[in-house]
């Protein structure tokens, strides 16, 4: 049985500073996600938070992470740029990244998207209906036609992100807005999935259908195991003629321009 190393990162601010949020997530949002995913023996789960040394994302931790799940909201600016560089490089090298809810404004996601990643929003306890628009996509595996969340924070288009490589979900809210809620991207060798639901004031991450989405996303985003490409100057595999043969060293120097 294949084992996947999953790291769940959460800034862990709301749960420590707001009693009403702590009542919903006494072990933190990261703890709830880890508990729900951890029922599957295929996943070796590590959690990390903002207040830990290096935000819990040491080079060793990231090197041993197949898929990183990221939840953030209040403390995006407190994430070290050094750690952001580290996360982005690991995605380019093949680590999967799942960005949840307000994590769309996190430094790693904004860097990887190359846009501001903003949208319209409000908190009004509205119903959210998450429609599966690509039922054949792996992230839609074992899901119903739609997921209905009786109360969630509302997001609305326009969502300032690049056009997704694949769009799996679109949300409709009872206030009238729609939102691209399941966006897939590839960056380098890595895969990125943005999933909208998960406001801290609601027990969204205890739901079986939401857990199924996260499990599907982990399986989709895991490293492919393919070869790592060689970039930059590369010697030929086959013997080829030297186009500078017979040319003087002085002429070579003025003709050859290095990368």
Characterise this structure.
By secondary structure, the protein is of the alpha/beta class. It has a single domain, classed as Class I glutamine amidotransferase (GATase) domain (Rossmann fold). The chain contains eight helices and nine strands. A nine-stranded mixed β-sheet has the order 2-1-3-4-9-8-7-5-6. The protein is elongated. The termini are far apart. The model has no long low-confidence stretch (mean pLDDT 94).
Offer a concise description of the structure.
This protein is of the alpha/beta class and 259 residues long. It is built from 8 helices and 9 strands. A 9-stranded mixed beta sheet has the order 2-1-3-4-9-8-7-5-6.
Topology:
Elements: E1 4-10, H1 14-17, H2 19-24, H3 28-37, E2 43-49, H4 59-63, E3 67-71, H5 81-92, E4 96-100, H6 107-113, E5 120-132, E6 146-156, E7 166-173, E8 178-187, E9 190-195, H7 208-221, H8 249-255
Parallel strand pairs: 1-2, 1-3, 3-4, 4-9
Antiparallel strand pairs: 5-6, 5-7, 7-8, 8-9
Helix pairs in contact: 5-6
Overall form: elongated
Report the order of strands and helices.
EHHHEHEHEHEEEEEHH
**Residues in helices, as a percent range:** 25-40%
Strand content: 25-35%
Averaged pLDDT:
94
Please give the alpha-carbon distance between the first and last residues: 45 Å
Low-confidence stretches: none
Q: If strands are numbered along the chain, what order do they take across the biggest sheet?
A: 2-1-3-4-9-8-7-5-6
Largest sheet: 9 strands, mixed
What is the CATH architecture annotation? 3-Layer(aba) Sandwich
What is the CATH superfamily label?
Answer: Class I glutamine amidotransferase (GATase) domain
């Amino acid at each position: 049985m294949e084992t996947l190393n999953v790291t769940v990162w959460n800034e862990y601010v709301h749960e420590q500073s707001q009693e009403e949020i702590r009542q919903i997530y006494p072990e933190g949002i990261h703890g709830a996600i880890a508990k729900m995913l951890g029922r599957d023996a295929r996943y070796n789960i590590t959690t990390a938070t903002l207040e830990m040394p290096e935000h819990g994302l040491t080079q060793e931790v990231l090197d041993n992470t197949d898929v990183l799940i990221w939840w953030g909201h209040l403390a995006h600016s407190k994430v070290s740029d050094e750690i952001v560089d580290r996360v982005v490089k690991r995605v380019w090298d093949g680590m999967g990244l799942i960005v949840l809810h307000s994590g769309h404004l996190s430094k790693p996601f904004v860097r990887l998207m190359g846009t501001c990643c903003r949208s319209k929003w409000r908190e009004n306890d509205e119903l959210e209906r998450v429609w599966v628009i690509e039922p054949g996509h792996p992230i839609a595996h074992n899901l119903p036609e739609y997921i209905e969340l009786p109360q969630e924070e509302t997001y609305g288009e326009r969502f300032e992100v690049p056009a997704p490589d694949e769009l799996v979900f679109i949300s409709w809210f009872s206030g009238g807005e729609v939102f691209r809620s399941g966006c897939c991207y590839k960056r380098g060798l890595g895969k990125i999935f943005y999933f909208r639901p998960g406001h801290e004031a609601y027990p969204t991450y205890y739901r079986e259908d939401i857990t199924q989405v996260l499990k599907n996303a982990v399986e989709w985003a895991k490293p492919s195991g393919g070869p790592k490409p060689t970039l930059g100057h590369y010697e030929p595999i086959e013997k080829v003629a030297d186009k500078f043969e017979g040319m003087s060293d002085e002429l070579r120097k003025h003709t050859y321009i290095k990368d």
